[in-house]
Amino acid sequence: MSILVVGSVAYDSLETPYGSMEKALGGSAVYFTTAASLFAPVNVVGVVGDDYDFSDLDFLQERKADLSGVIRKKGDTFAWKGVYGEDPNERETIYTRLGVFADFKPEIPESFRKSGYVFLANIDPDLQIDVLTQVDRPKLVVLDTMNFWIESKRESLNRVLEQTDVLIVNDSEAKQLTVENNLFTAAGKLFDLGPKIVVIKKGEHGALLLSKTDKFFAPIYPVEKVKDPTGAGDTFAGGFMGYIGSQDKTDWDTLKKAVIYGAAAASFTVEDFSILRLKNITAEDVNQRVGEIKKMTEF
Amino acid sequence: MSILVVGSVAYDSLETPYGSMEKALGGSAVYFTTAASLFAPVNVVGVVGDDYDFSDLDFLQERKADLSGVIRKKGDTFAWKGVYGEDPNERETIYTRLGVFADFKPEIPESFRKSGYVFLANIDPDLQIDVLTQVDRPKLVVLDTMNFWIESKRESLNRVLEQTDVLIVNDSEAKQLTVENNLFTAAGKLFDLGPKIVVIKKGEHGALLLSKTDKFFAPIYPVEKVKDPTGAGDTFAGGFMGYIGSQDKTDWDTLKKAVIYGAAAASFTVEDFSILRLKNITAEDVNQRVGEIKKMTEF
Which of A8, B35, B52, B141 has its CA 20 to 30 A from that of A197? Predict the structure, then answer.
């Protein structure tokens, strides 16, 4: 079953202790799609500027991605520069140049409106709401957000949350959304906001999948050299939803496995800059790491 | 197979956001033994002062603990006062009064010297070495230590590490011991110091069991109200070694399960002050949480 993703398409400038990269392919929609399209058809909606070279994304068409919803506008593509320290969790944003993304108003092509699964990547909650008004009720609405929107657009965010089935946040965002220190208490309050399922990402400590009645602990796939952590979260979401799309099921067992697919996919992203590693893997490579994670958690 | 533990027996004074407790039973040997003796016979070596009321430990004799190695000396029992903040990981030591523990020189009773498994709780590395000279070569030497000894007695600590089979440390200690930021890189270097197996405790994020060739991820058992985190680490070690002692095996599958028993046991400790909860549970209670953890990690 196909997946709709609405998010950013960007050129990143990256600096990490392992090197640097200019004009790197980036943006939540790109990371997400590169992972998800290994497993299921992905319909992508986004915007780029005059400077964007679409041929860089040719590899996506060999996977199962439809880029016809990525439109070109006059101006510059969204550009972001980040510098990471020794601790991959600490990064400094040097600049964020919105360019054509500043006026981004997602238009969902007719052919995308019946996508079974929708991923609202981390963009303005008002735009996320707008996307939901344009699509037929999907089987699952999955939402990402960040501290910036929690602080600046809480009311709009609450309205999206009411229509969200699965919320994916990191641990600090979960605590911020609920003003709770204990993750499990925080999760309990997140359900009150709308989502039936909450995925809490904990960086190197893995992820938690939570429903009102069940809990599932997923580790990361261990990577010794995290060359570039950019996009790990979006790749996680891509692996997660790619697996769900491939199974076209949303029961607890499928969701558990989907989280592991997310973790496995994300481990490839951080092994090299941008999508350099992720674009050169196959579904079988991800399957293999899923198997290894199974070995590392079974007792 | 029986387990020898050498560690502290203390009176704690505890303050947490959930209340306070004076003259609480504490000390690494007490937490360890309360957990381990649910599963295997435990031989305890320690020291207490004139003020210690042994009848408080009567419940341990109904389990499988032999306290004949806990000797009474003239003076006060080791006393410690700690205050915890909202974040259970942050605690302030108000005082540490060594009392009779200052001159502690472990003497291993003849009948304890053939214990199959030895747990060297977090005490002066010179004393830990001394213990090892007094026992017949056990099947497994398990070591705990802390930042204080890493900083002040590194040479002695290195000598204990050379004779250690399993090192149990928390993540910050692992990084401190190896001057490495990445946990997996740190673990690689820990093996060079002696241990064949490393267990890295990550607080609310669970624990890692590592050998040179294998990795195992264990979650915590989720507890919403951490009333008093004191002794969680020693209880973890107690559950871990108790299970190993009960199986009398040290293969990888046993070690994996032992880590889960450690996590399950520790979850009871933090649910109430001191050993109040831990002393009132049965092996079956721990088994049940082990089963629940299995459900929360299987996919």
Answer: A8
CB A227 within 8 A of CB A270: yes
B251 CB within 8 Å of a chain A CB: no
B294 vs A contacts (CB less than 8 Å)? 299
Q: Please choose, from the candidates A222, A215, A290, the residue with its C-alpha nearest in 3D space to the C-alpha of residue A38.
A: A290
ipTM rounded to 2 decimals: 0.89
Side chain identity at residue B188, one-letter code:
G
Asked if B297 and A297 come within 8 Å (Cβ–Cβ), the reply is yes
**Cβ atoms within 10 Å of A253's Cβ, excluding its own:** 12
Is the per-residue pLDDT at A204 higher than 90? no
pLDDT at residue A145 greater than cutoff 90? yes
CA atoms within 13 A on the CB side of A73: 19
Using CA atoms, how far apart are residues A210 and A169, in angstroms rounded to an integer?
12
**Contact criterion met (CB below 8 Å) for B36 and B5:** yes
Within 13 Å and on the Cβ side, how many CA atoms surround A171? 15
A89 touches chain B (CB under 8 A): no
Mean pLDDT value across residues A77-97: 92
Q: How far is B184 from chain A (nearest CA, A)?
A: 6
Q: A185 and B224 in contact by Cβ < 8 A? A: yes
- Number of structural domains found in chain B: 1
DSSP label at residue B135: S
Inter-chain residue contact B253 with A87, CB threshold 8 Å: no
Pick the residue from chain B with its C-alpha nearest to A206.
B205
Q: The whole model's pTM is what?
A: 0.92
pLDDT grade for B240, boundaries at 50, 70 and 90: very high
List, as ranges, residues 166-225 from A with C-beta within 8 Å of B: 181-185, 202, 204-206, 214-219, 222, 224-225
Cα A248 to Cα A3, A66, A244, B134, distances in angstroms = 10, 19, 6, 63
Residue B51 belongs to what domain range? 3-297
B156–chain A nearest CA distance, Å: 30
pLDDT tens digits for range A214-235? 999 999 999 988 999 999 999 9
Element containing residue B66 per DSSP (H, E): strand B65-72
Residues of B whose CB is below 8 A from A222: 184, 215
Contacts of B181 in chain A (CB under 8 A): 86-87
What is the CATH number for A99?
Answer: 3.40.1190.20
B91 — contact with chain A (CB < 8 Å)? no
